[in-house]
Amino acid sequence: MAFVRAGRPGLLGSISRVCVIGGTTEMTANAVNRAAERKAAQATAYTMQQPAPSSTTAETEDLVTRIEQLVRLRDRGALSDEEFRAAKALLFAG
To answer: Residue 54's pLDDT is what?
Structure first.
């Protein structure tokens, strides 16, 4: 005769439930973070398309700052290498 458990779940059932909930929570949080980083990257790319100041020194500093922002976004995984190269090309073109 097989043993059938009645009532509350046992230790393994509780541990399994906690692991599933924890994994689901982590996956959801990661998805939300990736979406926020993508949105920030798009906002940064839009900002970079705006006309630069007329001063040469300010333009150089602004360009360096924007490239540093792109590098940080790429390092965090918010931009792929292809997106990084395209945004960098827009900076140098414009």
So the answer is: 56
**Rounded-to-integer distance, Cα 38 and Cα 85, Å:** 16
pLDDT score for 55: 57
As a residue count, the chain comes to 94
Instruction: Look up residue 4 and give its DSSP letter.
Output: -
Distance of CA 35 to the CA centre of its chain: 6
Please give the Cα distance from 52 to 23 (Å, whole number). 45
Helix, strand, coil % (nearest 5) of the chain? 75, 0, 25
Kindly report the number of other CB atoms within 10 A of residue 91's CB atom.
Answer: 16
Who has greater pLDDT, 40 or 53?
40
